[in-house]
Predict the 3D structure of the following.
Amino acid sequence: MPAILSGHSENAPGRYYVTEECNGCGLCVTYSPDNFGWSPDGSYCVVSRQPMDTLELDTVWDAIQECPMRCIEDDGLPEDAA
Ligand code: SF4
């Protein structure tokens, strides 16, 4: 049975979020520093701000594709419905 994924509560509300499987490697912050940030204790990352334009969307997608834990999720809703 697959694990039930859930997002950290610190994620900025919206379409994209980081789940509790994050290992804190920091790659997402490297790829998309305007949209990802560290947790208060620095042990994992969260979506700090939802992407605001196509450039930020591209960097978020880079982070999704490079995340070693595959723990950046997209709920698939349009931005204005999130
Ligand atoms: S790239 Fe993935 S595993 Fe690494 S800190 Fe970001 S969300 Fe966590």
